[in-house]
Write a structure and sequence with these properties.
Blueprint: H1 3-16, E1 26-29, H2 36-47, E2 53-57, H3 70-86, E3 92-98, E4 107-113
Parallel strand pairs: 1-2
Antiparallel strand pairs: 2-4, 3-4
Length: about 120
């Protein structure tokens, strides 16, 4: 298991405690947004967060689970990797993992600055 996954799952669990709320280090996403500007803002913010930040796909904005399938994972990974390489200066290193939480199918995406 990648080292950052347990931290991401811990932050996800904390964000789902009442009242449900996103954290400075973690945002929920039900799906990939078509808004490239907004996505690059998220990547930049997380890249500048000490220790990076996490996008968790498979969660609606109210903290309820949504579905994630293999096609969505592949599309999201490819799109965010391209944005991290070509949409930000300096580029941002990205990693991803599909991890089970209490919400089956949710997956995490970690952002960390490449220096």
């Amino acid at each position: 298991m990648k080292k950052w996954i347990s931290k991401a799952l811990g932050l996800l669990q904390a964000s789902l405690e009442p009242p449900k709320h996103e954290l400075n280090e973690l945002d929920w996403k039900a799906a990939l947004s078509p808004d490239k500007k907004r996505l690059t803002e998220h990547l930049s913010a997380f890249a500048n967060q000490p220790g990076g930040g996490y996008l968790v796909f498979g969660m609606h904005s109210d903290g309820t689970p949504s579905s994630v399938d293999e096609e969505m994972v592949e599309k999201t990974v490819s799109h965010l990797a391209n944005l991290g390489r070509s949409g930000l200066e300096p580029p941002v290193a990205l990693d991803h993992a599909v991890a089970e939480h209490k919400s089956p199918g949710c997956f995490s995406y970690m952002c960390q600055r490449l220096w």
